[in-house]
Specification:
It is found in: Cytoplasm, Cytosol; Nucleus; Perikaryon; Presynapse. By secondary structure, this protein is mainly alpha-helical. Helices cover 79% and strands 0% of the residues. It has a domain of 34 residues. The chain is built from three helices and no strands.
Length: 70
């Protein structure tokens, strides 16, 4: 009977434990991947803020030029 069940389920036997409420296999590199993802998000946020500051400085420069013309 076990043979028939394994044939019927194919490669899904590993996932059956999870579906039935068993322990989920943990990725050994999950912590490292999460830290890398968080670092990438921080870096993107810093780059976005720097870009925003540069754009605002350029806008202020144009505003000042307009004020000086009058």
């Amino acid at each position: 009977m076990d043979f028939v069940m394994k044939q019927a389920l194919g490669g899904a036997t590993k996932d059956m434990g999870k579906m039935l409420g068993g322990e989920e296999e943990k990725d050994p590199d999950a912590q490292k991947k999460e830290e890398e993802r968080q670092e990438a998000l921080r870096q993107q946020e810093e780059e976005r803020k720097a870009k925003h500051a540069r754009m605002e400085a350029e806008r202020e420069k144009v505003r000042q030029q307009i004020r000086d013309k009058d």
